[in-house]
Write a structure and sequence with these properties.
Length: 382
Amino acid sequence: MLSISNEKMTQEVVLVWRKIPGIERSQRPFSLATEQHQQWKERWDGGSGGGGGAFACVSMAEKGEKNDFTPTREQFLRHPLALLALVPRDAALFAAGAVAGAAAKTVTAPLDRVKLLMQTHGLRAGQEITKRGIGFIEAMMLIGKEEGIKGYWKGNLPQVIRIIPYSAVQLFSYEIYKKLFKGENGELSIIGRLAAGACAGMTSTFVTYPLDVLRLRLAVEPGYKTMSEVALNMLRDEGIASFYNGLGPSLLGIAPYIAVNFCIFDLVKKSLPEKFQKRTESSLLTALVSATLATLMCYPLDTVRRQMQMKGTPYSTVLDAFPGIIERDGFIGLYRGFVPNALKTLPSSSIRLTTFDTVKGLIAASEKEFQKIMEENRQKQT
């Protein structure tokens, strides 16, 4: 942009160069004044002496003069969907992920509580006394008997608090990493998609991991009533490092899980006929398939992570935990709590991914509606 000024007025000049295919450039020489500016000549020639024409357009407008085609209040009232276009895209996706995640966690909290109890029961009861695990029905009855109906949602508040930033960071960073891993042709390969999902999963886990540890302690250790009480006791008795106990297996577990989950979901949705891609049931079914495959692959690492997070755990590394769990509970011990976790994964992943897909569609529709109104206003003023 060039600025031209004199005593009477100040103007802005916008210089735009465009290639126009099929137009031969003029054979007439530049004027002497123009040839003195080699960069202009090179720009005209295309910089490499190649064929094809070029076109330069200079537009001048009074400084401060502004064409405002923004929709009026009356237009927004007639087209309320266009209001969503005023919200920054990242903020809209952040809110959608947060609400979807919070709703999914609240609905599936009882199953999550049962899963945690099944995963850690042997360690809580004492390794020397209790050698066998606890079953799904037995865990359900135990929670109801000892804590009542509210016990099924014990520890849900910190989980909801955790899922809001977790979903926001994960979904936002996934979009960023997808851009970073795109190839030279602008396409995202399967390997690039897997890498983007893995990095997004590790980023969100690292940021919110202390809240996950607090949620676990509040859910499975007796005597605690609030998250702040758990946090203060951990700081006093175990130090700040205790908030990151089991981070290694958590990162190892979440990276392949999110990578496989997001990759399968995206690829399956993309492979569907166009008329099915926007249907809600397609998102639900695709989310179920992707979450099931990802859970089967990564669940043993989740069990290891939970047992390493427990106070007084005998395991200091992943290599200690795997043989220790197998020796105490057998190979099936790595999959303790898998059934309630699988039952939880269906509504949780379906609600989250389907809501995210739906909101992305609404955002696209709102932007289209907004641009339509802007174009109508532009045509009225010209």
